[in-house]
Amino acid sequence: MLKIAWSPEYAHPLPENHRFPMLKYELLPEQLLYEGTVTQDNFFRPAALPEARIVRVHDENYWRRLRELELTPSEIRKTGFPLSAELVMREVIIMGGTVEAADYALQYGMAMNIAGGTHHAFTDRGEGFCLLNDNALGAQYLLDEGKAGKVLIVDLDVHQGNGTAQIFAQEPRVFTFSMHGGNNYPLHKETSDLDVPLPDGIGDEGYLQLLRTHLPRLMEQVEPDFVFYQCGVDVLASDKLGKLALTHAGCKERDRLVLELCHTHGVPVCASMGGGYSTRIADIVEAHANTFRLAQQIFF
């Protein structure tokens, strides 16, 4: 059974000018239920990730200051959200969702988090709507518990997974792969194990050709025991923060390629939704929904 992390806290209310990005966390599960892609049995409500797990990845002093709402105004501006206790709790629950989903993926072959993909969170700071890094925490959990010996993080959000790259820069058991807009945020890129910077305006054909060139080879070379997939839909041509030109069909084919490779190789995969900032909320929800539809078709 496809298990999906979701909690009412995911749709945490924000000031009016920040609410739009949060709408998908309410609308996406509603759409999936309405169309019959999933039932209520597919969803699980995650618990907050324990502090002991958070500090396996994040600096203890950063976590303390975040928890106590002691970040400086400059640090808060870099995260993009006004800081509050509710926002921190939301983040901690999302982290728990990805860690729990990783266990479900080991059991069923694939699991998903409606939220997550918080790849701009570093060991000691947050950036770009990310306070803590869920894929990094999930990968560290699997390594610590002996549930995986080699983890591949496939980050196909339009923005480089800079925080994830920094966190695992000295960890040979985690291979970080980021295919992203070369001229997009962040201005300063970190160094992933493999970075594929993309030119502005690249469309379906060029994008998919590059992905088909790199990812099958990585699956063979890295031989991962587990894959975390950051499947942001800000690669769409309609995205306000992206500079690429993928169609919905191209974005869906991207997901199909990743999920079919994992399925073919027998490698469990945990998907986190990542970014999506198209002007029409329907475009965001439809692109994300395609990932869930494919998960059901390929794995179940």
Automatic annotation (TrEMBL):
The keyword Ribosomal protein does not apply. It comes from the Bacteria. GO terms for biological process: epigenetic regulation of gene expression. Keywords: Hydrolase. The keyword Hydrolase applies. SUPFAM superfamilies: Arginase/deacetylase. GO terms for molecular function: histone deacetylase activity; hydrolase activity. Residues 24-289 form the Histone deacetylase domain. Belongs to the histone deacetylase family. This is Histone deacetylase. It comes from Rufibacter immobilis.
